[in-house]
Amino acid sequence: MPEPPEGPPIVRDQRTNRRIRAREVRVVGPNAEQLGVMSLEAALTRAQADGLDLVEISPMAKPPVCKIMDYGKFKYEEKKKASDAKKKQVVVHLKEVKLRPKTEEHDYEFKVRNVRRFLEEGNKAKITIQFRGREITHKELGSAILDDVVKDLKDVAVVEQNPRMEGRQMFMILAPNPKVAQRARELARQAVEAAAKKQEGRPAVAAAVVSAMAVGNATPIASKE
């Protein structure tokens, strides 16, 4: 029978210790060493001797595979990893920009510049053409404006949703192209890392100030720029 891999996947809400139901289990040691098949009682005794937990990691295997580990520490580290990953995620917003079939040139250019900046930040944009009164009979004007927007932003955007009508409005959705989206994610990651380093440095700075006050018995004075 082939041995299980050294690092089988860990799933949520594993059975641990006395909650494990199998009579026999295949045991992986705390350093990923294969300890073989043994009774549940023997496996629990081995885990307790190491001051660790017995965790069922592959319940569907025959016999189930259990790993000896510090389960509390594992759950804490998993939670911390998930929290760090969440901080590094780029939150994508959808911003709506409204235009009219007869939007003036300077207003059009101003709004397109805003859309470009928004896309470069990794967000998406909904471009809406609003028709009023008899303007609805000239849908081709709205289509022409949307075509112009796509052409003016072709270096940073892709059309995620093609133009379509909804009531008296025509709209499309633009998303940053892969290159722009990747750059936005990288900038967001760098900002998170910089903020984390700044936060880590604050305790050290505070400790240095306290130490200086203790040695010199002086009162720090805030500098003015």
UniProtKB/TrEMBL annotation:
<comment type="subunit">
    <text>Monomer.</text>
</comment>
<feature type="domain" description="Translation initiation factor 3 N-terminal">
    <location>
        <begin position="16"/>
        <end position="84"/>
    </location>
</feature>
<comment type="similarity">
    <text>Belongs to the IF-3 family.</text>
</comment>
<dbReference type="GO" id="GO:0005829">
    <property type="term" value="C:cytosol"/>
</dbReference>
<feature type="domain" description="Translation initiation factor 3 C-terminal">
    <location>
        <begin position="92"/>
        <end position="177"/>
    </location>
</feature>
<dbReference type="GO" id="GO:0003743">
    <property type="term" value="F:translation initiation factor activity"/>
</dbReference>
<dbReference type="InterPro" id="IPR036787">
    <property type="entry name" value="T_IF-3_N_sf"/>
</dbReference>
<dbReference type="GO" id="GO:0016020">
    <property type="term" value="C:membrane"/>
</dbReference>
<dbReference type="InterPro" id="IPR001288">
    <property type="entry name" value="Translation_initiation_fac_3"/>
</dbReference>
<dbReference type="Pfam" id="PF05198">
    <property type="entry name" value="IF3_N"/>
</dbReference>
<dbReference type="Pfam" id="PF00707">
    <property type="entry name" value="IF3_C"/>
</dbReference>
<keyword id="KW-0648">Protein biosynthesis</keyword>
<dbReference type="GO" id="GO:0043022">
    <property type="term" value="F:ribosome binding"/>
</dbReference>
<dbReference type="InterPro" id="IPR036788">
    <property type="entry name" value="T_IF-3_C_sf"/>
</dbReference>
<comment type="function">
    <text>IF-3 binds to the 30S ribosomal subunit and shifts the equilibrium between 70S ribosomes and their 50S and 30S subunits in favor of the free subunits, thus enhancing the availability of 30S subunits on which protein synthesis initiation begins.</text>
</comment>
<keyword id="KW-0963">Cytoplasm</keyword>
<dbReference type="InterPro" id="IPR019814">
    <property type="entry name" value="Translation_initiation_fac_3_N"/>
</dbReference>
<dbReference type="InterPro" id="IPR019815">
    <property type="entry name" value="Translation_initiation_fac_3_C"/>
</dbReference>
<dbReference type="InterPro" id="IPR019813">
    <property type="entry name" value="Translation_initiation_fac3_CS"/>
</dbReference>
<keyword id="KW-0396">Initiation factor</keyword>
<dbReference type="GO" id="GO:0032790">
    <property type="term" value="P:ribosome disassembly"/>
</dbReference>
<protein>
    <recommendedName>
        <fullName>Translation initiation factor IF-3</fullName>
    </recommendedName>
</protein>
